[in-house]
Every structure is written in C-alpha cells, then in structure tokens.
Amino acid sequence: MDRDVTETMVGFARTVRAAGGAADPERVQAMLAALGHLDVLDPRDVYWAGRLTLCADPDDLARYDRCFAAYFSGATARPGRRPPPVVARRVPAAEPGGTGGDREGDLEAATASEVEVLRDRDVARLGAAERAEVARLIALLDAGAERRRSRRFAPAASGRLDPARTVRETLRRGGETSLLRHRSHRTRPRRVVLIVDVSGSMSPYADAMLRFAHAAARSGGRDVEVFSAGTRLTRLTRELRHRDPDAAMAAASAAIPDWSGGTRLGEELKEFLDRFGQRGLARGAVVVIASDGWERGDAGLLGAQMARLHRLAHRVVWANPHKARPGYEPLTAGMAAALPHVDDFTSGHSLAALEELARIVAGAGKGRAHA
After folding, report:
1. Radius of gyration of the chain (CA)
2. What are the sequence ranges of the domains in the chain?
3. What confidence category does residue 366 fall into, taking pLDDT thresholds of 50, 70 and 90?
4. What is the pLDDT of residues 272-282, one digit of tens each?
5. What is the pLDDT of residue 365?
6. Strand order from edge to edge, sheet including 182-189
7. Which residues are within 8 A (CB) of 242 and not within 5 positions of it... i.e. 6 or more apart?
C-alpha cells in the first residue's frame, strides 16, 4: 500500500481513538489489510473498511461517522445522520505552462495550511468551529512524561554484570563457561501533576488547558494527576480518565464548583502540598501550573509555597497564556513571587504553545524560567 495512504489512514485511526473509539493497533492493521484489497480512491470503500474494523460496539458507530466527516472532508456530522463518505482525492498535475491550478496535493496543502494557521492562533480569539478543530488536535497530542531511572533492573546487552543470570546460565550448560550476562536499570515515566487555574481571568484558556490535561492523562495513565484551582482545590484525575475528550470535559465541568471565580493560588497550593504533595504526588514529579498569576490572596504565601514545591518536585513548569502578548512582563504580585521558583516559563495560549508544553513535560528544552 502507498506510504501516503498508510500514513493518512493511521492518522485517521488516531483521531477515532482520541474520540473514544476502539481503534487499537490490531484493528488498525485489520483496516490497512482490508484496504489492500479495495480501491483506496473510492470513498465508500475507505468508509466501510474503517467502519467494519475500527468499531467495536454500536456506540462507536456515531463516533466513527463524526470522525470520518471531520477528518476527510472537514465537515461536522449531524446527530442521527450518516455523513457522506468524502475523502481527499489527488488531482492530476497540470501540464507545464498550463493555466490550471489543479496540482497534485492542492487539497492536502490547503488543509495543512489551515491547520498551520490555527496552530499559532490565540485560543481566546477563535470562533466556535475553530475551537472545535483545535480541541480535536489537542486530543491527538502525545503529552507523555520524561522517563526516569528505576531502582529495578532488566536484562541488557551491555552494562552492569548480572551475576545471578550468569551463574544460572553456566549451571544450565553443565558448568561450562558461557557468555557473561548483563543488566541495566529499567526506566519508567516520571509522575506529572497538572494544576489548572479555572478562575474568571483564566476562563478563555481553562478549557484548552483542561483538554491538554486530558491528553496528558491519556498518554501517561496512572502517572498523571490533575487538579483545578480557583477558590478551592478540586481533584479531577478520575473525571479525566474518560477516553472520550468531550465526556471527560463534561465530567470535569460537573466536578468543578468554582468555575470563573476568584483566585487564591497560595492557599490552594498549600492545600495541595499538605494533602497530596508532601505525601508523594509532588516528590520527584514534573508539576505544571497553568495560570495567569493573578492572586487575590497573599502573594508572599504563594512565593513560600512555590519554594516548598520546588524543593519537592523534579521540575516546576508554569504556563501563563499572557506571556505570548507583546511587551508582557511578569509584574503581577503573584507571578513575581512565583517565578523565582519556576524551572520553565511558557505560554500555552495556542495549539503550538501546547505542543511546546508537551515537549517540556517530556523533558525536551529544559531550562531556567525566563520572561
């Protein structure tokens, strides 16, 4: 099968999986195998190959239809109505010197251009359709954590000598000398903790930040914890375990009692450290705080708790959407108190900024905070 077709269909399967579908690797392989016997330029063949392989139960059908329409045609399927199976079709290249603009890949280039424009747009200034598309792209982010060395060992081709395995291998050979066996430390994902400010000043960005937290929870599994902070601290880890991003957001919204309220970050951070952080959640973790730094409480308390957090955590990352604005300086009392205890200071105001945040969480681009 053509490599471009394979990459396109694997990307579609990821979209279905991000929407909560059962598009596991075995089903993806089955879809690609089916397409090997069909006409990939026939929209109906592509539609049915995916529908019969990527759907595990009746609940997946409507989800699959929505994903198919959005991925291949950019349309949004109406509830209860099957979308027309339209796929991007390659257009033959125009002859040299011709006047037509129908070059091969024109449709793909236009779609990629639209996505590229959306990547750098401030999420607070998007329309409803643009927000929906950005939400879909956030769900596809790989926000896995960096890996750390475990105390446990695993067999390895080189490294530290493994006496026990070497002796066992020798005994199996009747005492004859055998190859030396080695071992090395295993690695495991480092815990990630996300604290998302849901106060009134963060309302244009809270949804995108929580969707990023859902993508991180999906990528990191049980090694990711999510909290919201405003006038009170709310643990959202269980709500964001849903595979379907919209279901996860609905559950999180129902669990947060202080949407668009005030901000007492110092008090909420102290509560987090007293109840969860000191007991282990923050110890050695990558802690991400998504907030604009407006603090109605005591900024001195926030600074003290940030210093305490910095001593416990492996790294502290602060994502402030206002950082992307021209001429921004961290002059608010809360931000000024927190910044000395931050390892990475980023914006998180757009899809591109969230992609950068994902790279930081994964351990790329480490560095001291800078304005």
Report:
1. 25
2. 1-79, 149-188, 192-361
3. low
4. 999 998 778 99
5. 57
6. 147-156, 182-189, 160-161
7. 20, 214, 248, 251
In 3-state terms the chain splits into helix, strand, coil percentages (rounded to 5) of 50, 15, 35
Tokens at 317, concatenated: 């990352």
Residues composing the chain = 371
Q: What CATH number should be reported for the domain whose range is 192-361?
A: 3.40.50.410
Residue keyed to tokens 């009170």: 232
Q: How far is CA 43 from the centre of its chain?
A: 30
Instruction: Say if residue 301's pLDDT is above 90.
Output: yes
What burial class does residue 107 get, using C-beta atoms within 10 Å of its C-beta: 0-12 exposed, 13-18 middle, 19+ buried? middle
Structure tokens at 175: 């005492």
Structure tokens at 289: 């705080």
Encode 201-228: b = buried (16+ Cβ within 10 Å), e = exposed. bbebbbbbbbbbbbbbbbbbeebbbbbb
Task: Report the C-alpha gap between 123 and 349 in whole angstroms.
Answer: 6
Q: Which of 52-66, 97-111, 143-157 has the highest mean pLDDT?
A: 52-66
